[in-house]
Every structure is written in structure tokens, then in C-alpha cells.
Amino acid sequence: MKSLTKELWMNVPKRRAIISIHGEVEQLVRESGVQDGLALINAMHITASVFINDNESGLHQDYEEWLEELAPFDPSPERYQHNRTGEDNADAHHKRQIMGREVIVAITGGKLHLGPWEHIFYYEFDGGRKKRVLVKIIGD
Amino acid sequence: MKSLTKELWMNVPKRRAIISIHGEVEQLVRESGVQDGLALINAMHITASVFINDNESGLHQDYEEWLEELAPFDPSPERYQHNRTGEDNADAHHKRQIMGREVIVAITGGKLHLGPWEHIFYYEFDGGRKKRVLVKIIGD
Amino acid sequence: MKSLTKELWMNVPKRRAIISIHGEVEQLVRESGVQDGLALINAMHITASVFINDNESGLHQDYEEWLEELAPFDPSPERYQHNRTGEDNADAHHKRQIMGREVIVAITGGKLHLGPWEHIFYYEFDGGRKKRVLVKIIGD
């Protein structure tokens, strides 16, 4: 069994942003030499997501508004008990559950085995500090 | 390491539907000869989901209504910026995030290792065209 | 390829609870002898989740209230068709979709490869009976 392990460092200056990590993951699959296997791509932080969807800026703006409706930012200690700890990011812990922690992508013939519009993104919900995404590839 | 890779083609005439793919996945596990490993089952399109839940039609109808509340269908360009591109399926990209892109199921003793009520489904949110589900099995 | 398969039995007396299974999963990774691979941790029941987030009781209370807003408990047959079958747990099938069925965690150097605050939990949405979590570890 071959494997490759790589942490990608992210530094998002704004509080929230959707960032393509697709090309970096493709490159790591090539480096791994794995022809047939699985790639795990996961946020290593609990106020961020890795997800697969459309590379279309209008949709990304729609996600921003939708997640804000489902789990509004509110730094006060009234809405979220988590924010009584001195944190202001309870909403980020909620948004991340909707968008997910990780994706698993098949590798076939040495490449990511994806549909035509599948694109891998990192979603930052509480930026302004360094965070990591883990890429773990296993296979033959 | 053994592996099996198979794309299942789906063609849902209606806009939305929940379709069992459980039997097909079971059959592919048998074909793979894998006794101990993992099966990845994922939608290859970004307006569809693969999920595991109850094979009960009332619950499926409940999901339909619930997802429509959380992310209503609205082809106009007002609610969703994505629909300014000429698409009308922004709601489908949202619903798919709630229900998920993929499931990973363990294989033990040559069979899917599932609880008594776990059943694998494809969820189409923007039908009327051909789409694919990927099954990737790896193990010994 | 090495592997380890273990079902963890859960018995939550209350209807809902968030329970750490982090230490048990760490122990199973040690037992497996796997240095480099993947760990799948999934609920074997369709009214429960396995998820990774913060080990902070205020946040867990926030999740309780948030999920109750998104998918309220209602045993009557009016809101949820599923509850016309004699069940009262349709809400639990919905909540589990938000929080997810499973997590996949990389194993590197014989240990779970996690960020500093990542903690593995079981989330029971319909307790009062015995349920299982599956841990499946594969790798070298």
C-alpha cells in the first residue's frame, strides 16, 4: 500500500471565505503515485469545512447568505452559550456542520475520479488565523 | 489490495426523487471479492446526494417537505444569485449539502457492515437528465 | 493490509445526549497496529450521528437548541408522515442528517491525525435503547 500525508496551511484574512484547494489536491495525487485508492481531505479545525460543489461565485454568495440564515453570527452570550466562554464563533461551529468536515474522493488511473462539475473547496468560517487542511491518500 | 470501480447511471424523469441503490451496492461488494475494506459511494454531480437512512416512504416525503423549507425551489434571480447564470437549480445545490455527497461503508466478512435499518439511497434534486453515482471498493 | 473491526455498544437512558467516544477510538487505533491508514467511525443506527467538533458543554447545549429549531420533536402524525407508522422519532432522522452519519480520520505514525480541538462524539437523538457505533480501521 502506498500513502501520502500532507497538511495544507490556510490563512484567510477575512472572517469567512470559500477557497479552491482543487489544484493542490490534484497535484498531491500525482505526487503520491497512487493509481487506485482513496483521498481523504478534511479540515483540521472545527470552524471550517471541506466540501465539493460548483466553482461559481454566485452560488458561493448564496451559501454565505443561507448559512447566515440557518446559524446567524451573534457574538453576544444570549443566543449561543458557547460565546459565554469568551469566544464569539459559535455560529462557525454550526455552519461547519451543515457544510461538512471532510470529503473522500476515489482515485482511479492515477487521478481524482470526479464528475464534470465537482470541485474541492475549503470553507473558512472564523478566519484571521492560520489553519490546516489534511490530505491523506492511500492505495496501490 | 483488491479494488472495484463502477459508475451507476441514474436517469430520474422527475425533478426530485429518492431511489434505493442498496441492492446494486451489495452486488458490487460481492463482485469485488473484498472481504475486509471500505466502500465509497458518492454522487458524481453537485445537485444530488447519496445518504443512508430508513427505507420508509413517509420519512422520504418528510425529507421532501423539510428540505423545501430549508432551501426552497425558486428559479427567479432574486433569491439565489446562482440563478442569474441561467440556471434554476440553486436550491438543489443547497439541499445536497444538507443530505451529503457520499457515504463510506465498512466491508467485513465480504459484506456491507451495516446496522439493521441502514439503507443506501440516491437523492436526485435536479432530475430530467442522466447522472452518475460512483462506487469505489478497496480492501483485501 | 492490516485491519481492525469493532462495534461499540451505546446505551443512552435519555432521549438525547452527546457522548465522547474519542478515548475508545484512540485505544482501538493503538490495538490495530496500523501506522498509516484510515479510521471510519459511523453510527449503525439511523437516528444517531458520529461527528467531530469542540469538547465544550455550552456548544453542545447550543446544538441541542439549534437542531430543535431546524427539526422539532413532534410525535403527532401531523407534522411528520413518518410518525403515522407508530414511530415518534421522525425528528431524530432529520437531526441526524444535519450532524452526519460518520467521520473518517487519517492515521499517521500510529495515531489519529487530528487538529488540536478535534474531538470525536456520538450523538444520540432517540435513546432509551441499545445502539452501536462501528469502528473500522484499515492500513499498513
Q: Could you provide a short overview of the structure?
A:
Chain A is an alpha+beta fold and 140 residues long. In chain A, the strands form two sheets. A five-stranded antiparallel beta sheet of chain A has the order 1-8-3-5-6, with helices on one face.
Describe this structure in words.
Three copies of one chain form a homotrimer. Chain A starts with a strand and ends with a strand. The longest helix of chain A is centred in the middle third of the chain and has 14 residues, at 57-70. Chain A is an alpha+beta fold and 140 residues long. Chain A has three helices and eight strands; from the N terminus they run ββαββααββββ. Chain A is 25% helix and 38% strand. The first copy, chain A, has helices at 22-32, 57-70, 90-99, and strands at residues 2-11, 17-20, 36-43, 48-53, 102-108, 111-112, 119-124, 130-139. In chain A, a hairpin with a 2-residue loop joins strand 5 and strand 6. At the A-B interface, strand 3, strand 4, helix 2 and strand 5 of A face strand 3, helix 3 and strand 8 of B.
